[in-house]
Design a protein that fits this description.
Radius of gyration of chain A: 21 Å
CATH superfamily of chain B: P-loop containing nucleotide triphosphate hydrolases
Order of helices and strands of chain B: EEEHEEHEEHHHEHEHEHEEHH
Oligomer: heterodimer
Number of domains of chain B: 1
Distance between the termini of chain A: 42 Å
Largest interface: A-B, 23 and 28 residues
Order of helices and strands of chain A: HHHEEHHEEEEEEEEEEEEEEEEEHHH
Helix content of chain B: 25-40%
Largest sheet of chain B: 6 strands, mixed
CATH class of chain B: Alpha Beta
Chain lengths: 395, 253
């Protein structure tokens, strides 16, 4: 650690409560490296200066009540009521590469949830996990493991909300475990106030013939970093990873994804879209790994950003690491403004420039929103997006 | 005499600093259909784009008045709402915006200008389906993204669909006949003819005279080198078809 204010605060929080052995180890892992800096390749585009200076406090009891509203047939547990072994294994799918924030979460998390969906659970009611981030400058460390058993299906929405003007940090960890033939639709909906911080470590492990559709909707927060490590560990596993990020003012929206094709005949589709206004900064880092011998891989990655102002910036970095020869991997990135020909077409049909720009921005984002699993969620997000779009006519 | 809808005086315009229009004069009255013909590069599309208000078309001299108002001072959306419609030569594709949403937004913007209440979804759908039937268009085009993946002919039909919904006072057709087979040409021309009335006018810009067999013009103008080199009745279009443009180019020199 470099001893910045936030690191000292994390240590105080850690020492402030009795911890289990696994937490001690996690703390040592964090303390060894401390908060990353832009000299760290994985954090090159995301300076943490604003976060470093905050003296975070331990969360007030019950400030982040994770509420799981769910089909009655699935098991939803509180990790505090399980054995130390179960608690220690929670987070094990999260690779040290996602450290140091994943390690910090493991050191400071108080319990967490276990959601276990069995094949017997045939009803398709979604789980809605509400993560409420309290005011002031609290550090919250929510964590959940969602296990979808062989042949089972589930839909889970993890929803981050917070007290207005909170300078708090939600340092969350989410594990998705899909057994053979399991299907999971996971949505991370981040609507934190634009003063808060969010670092999300998301790890997914997929067994054979499982299908995961994971979507990150990063709409709020002053600084948001969503790091995804998805491992396709069984043949025939399919992953659809999508994201929509919105930035305005001086918001920073970072998605850092790694897809590990560890098994042959696995498929991944990645689609990220961002709309940035003001002096917002967007980052997309998309790494795709194909392990030696993992043949017949089909991987496609797209990242597109729409800049609504001259001050908005986006950094996009695809990274393909392919160690097998019979694979199909593609990536594409584009960064641009609204198409002047499309704008003119709409205006020449009577739409005013503000409405025309909003309609085109909306259309740009709709490719991600139309993939959302629940119609009600889709509609809510469409309204949220329309309300967000700037009421101005030109950059 | 009927109302003077469009009055173009000594119009000069540049694109990318290059002079294209070099003094166009044209008058169009309510109830009339005029054709503007000319070889490639004569300035036909530039004239259409200047009338619609596209950026990058710089007017350096002259004036355009629409119903007595300075058209060039109006924003593109203001022109549309005032009743000017350009059917584009190359309609742009807009992925993610459904055709029905777009056309309803457009129609309601124009209706608001005319002091009419907005149409709700049900009334709009009834209206647009009737217009589509007239244009022999499949209703599936309503739920598709604007022009996305449409064939050349489908795009042109979609332009005429918008034309028939918006019922403009002045319709400017920019090479609407290009890329159409003979059946589609007839359907499209019928669509325009249905709109003809003593209050409205059409300016049909075209390279070939075959559209004019169905959409019979009151006057034909030949645009050469950015100027109207010759004007005449329908006979002029037929003569051009037979003899080409070279003789007028020679006369114009």
């Amino acid at each position: 650690m470099r001893g910045v204010a936030a690191e000292r605060a994390f240590e105080r929080i850690f020492r402030g409560a009795p911890r289990e052995r696994a937490a001690e180890e996690a703390w040592r892992a964090f303390a060894e490296r401390g908060l990353p800096t832009t000299r760290d390749e994985d954090w090159r585009f995301t300076p943490l200066a604003a976060l470093e200076s905050v003296e975070f406090a331990a969360p007030e009891a019950g400030e982040i009540p994770a509420q799981a509203l769910a089909a009655a047939c699935a098991r939803v547990g509180d990790a505090r009521r399980t054995t130390a072994t179960t608690r220690a294994s929670l987070g094990s799918a999260i690779d040290p590469k996602l450290a140091p924030f994943a390690a910090l979460n493991a050191a400071l998390a108080d319990g967490g949830e276990l959601i276990d969906v069995s094949a017997a659970c045939s009803r398709q009611l979604p789980f809605h996990l509400i993560r409420w981030l309290g005011g002031g400058a609290q550090l919250a460390s929510p964590r959940v493991r969602i296990t979808v058993r062989a042949g089972a299906r589930a839909t889970v929405i993890e929803h981050f909300l917070g007290a207005s003007d909170a300078h708090s940090l939600a340092n969350s960890a989410t594990e998705l475990v899909l057994e053979r033939g399991a299907q999971l639709d996971y949505v991370q909906l981040q609507e934190l106030p634009e003063t808060a911080f969010h670092v999300s470590s998301l790890a997914a492990r997929q067994e054979a013939d499982s299908r995961l559709r994971a979507t990150s909707l990063a709409l709020g927060a002053r600084l948001s970093r969503v790091q995804v490590l998805a491992t396709l560990s069984g043949e025939g596993a399919e992953l659809e990873l999508a994201g929509l990020y919105l930035g305005r003012g001086s918001q920073h929206q970072d998605h850092h994804t790694t897809i590990d094709h560890a098994s042959p005949r696995t498929t991944s589709r990645e689609l990220f879209k961002g709309i940035l206004d003001g002096r917002a900064h967007g980052v997309f880092h998309g790494r795709v790994q194909v392990r030696p011998g993992a043949q017949k891989i089909d991987a496609a990655q797209t990242n597109r950003a729409l800049l609504l102002s001259d001050g908005a910036v986006v950094d996009s970095k695809p990274q393909l690491e392919i160690y097998a020869d019979d694979v199909k991997c593609s990536h594409g990135a584009s960064i641009g403004q609204l198409d002047p020909d499309q704008l003119f077409y709409l205006r020449s049909r009577g739409l005013d420039p503000v409405a025309a720009r909003a309609l085109l921005s909306f259309a740009f984002a709709s490719e991600v929103l139309e993939r959302l699993p629940l119609p009600a969620l889709r509609e809510a997000l469409e309204e949220r997006l329309l309300a967000w779009l700037p009421r101005k006519s030109a950059p | 005499m009927s109302e003077l809808l469009l009055e173009i005086r000594d119009l000069h315009a540049r694109v990318d600093g290059k002079p294209i229009l070099r003094g166009v004069n044209l008058e169009l009255r309510a109830g009339e259909v005029h054709a503007v013909m000319g070889p490639n590069g004569s300035g036909k599309s530039t004239l259409a784009n200047v009338l619609a208000g596209r950026e990058g078309y710089e007017v350096t001299r002259g004036s355009v008045h629409y119903r007595g108002a300075d058209l060039l001072a109006m924003a593109p959306e203001a022109r549309a709402r005032a009743g000017v419609f350009l059917a584009f030569q190359y309609p742009v594709e807009i992925p993610g915006v459904t055709n029905s949403y777009f056309m309803k937004a457009s129609l309601n913007a124009v209706r608001a200008e005319r002091g009419l209440p907005p149409l709700d979804a049900i009334d709009f759908l009834a209206l647009v389906k009737q217009k589509m039937k007239e244009l022999e268009m499949d209703e599936k085009f309503l739920s598709r993204s604007v022009n996305e993946g449409f064939s050349g002919g489908e795009k042109k039909r979609n332009e005429i669909l918008q034309l028939s919904l918006l019922e403009p006072v002045l319709a400017v057709l920019d090479e609407t006949d290009s890329g159409l087979d003979i059946d589609a040409l007839r359907v499209v021309a019928d669509g325009v003819n249905r709109l003809r009335s003593p209050e409205r006018a059409v300016l049909a810009i075209t390279h070939y005279q075959r559209l004019l067999e169905y959409l019979v013009p009151d006057r034909t103008h030949v645009l050469i080198g950015g100027r109207i080199a010759k004007s005449g009745d329908r006979g002029l279009a037929l003569e051009l078809e037979k003899r080409g443009y070279a003789w007028i180019e020679a006369e114009a020199r």
